[in-house]
Amino acid sequence: MTTPECPQPIEIRQNILSLANFIDKTSVDIISDPQPEKVGILININRELAAGLFASIEGAEEERPPEPEQPEAVNDPGSFDSSV
Questions:
Q1: DSSP structure class, residue 3
Q2: 45, 23 contact by CB (below 8 A)
Q3: In a 10 Å sphere around its CB, with 0-12 CB exposed, 13-18 middle and 19+ buried, how is residue 10 labelled?
Q4: Helix axis angle, 36-63 relative to 10-32, nearest 10°?
Q5: Between the chain's N and C termini, which has fewer beta carbons within 10 Å?
Q6: How far is it, in rounded angstroms, from Cα 43 to Cα 21?
Q7: How far is it, in rounded angstroms, from Cα 16 to Cα 25?
């Protein structure tokens, strides 16, 4: 994310790094002073990221072209029949 060769736009990279810094600072704060209400923000971030990733997977599956149909197997008398 920090190298110039990174294919992501600079704005995306900056946002990801900012989020990582926030999560790091919040995690350290929770470790030093554990309170249930502090954990909620990290849980929400985790859920939002998971939902976004899940939606992108669903979108990728919808965009995928259908797989070609496979021809039916020919019943060859010399072939092995597992139903016997």
A1: S
A2: yes
A3: exposed
A4: 150
A5: C
A6: 16
A7: 14
DSSP 34: -
- C-alpha dihedral sign at 30, 33, 35, 37: negative
Residue of 54, 45, 47 lying closest to 25 (CA atoms): 45
Asked whether the beta carbons of 16 and 1 are under 8 A apart, the reply is yes
- Provide the H-helix boundaries in 1-84: 10-32, 36-63
Q: Which tokens is 72 given?
A: 């039916």
pTM: 0.60
- Quick check: 26 and 38 in contact, CB under 8 A? yes
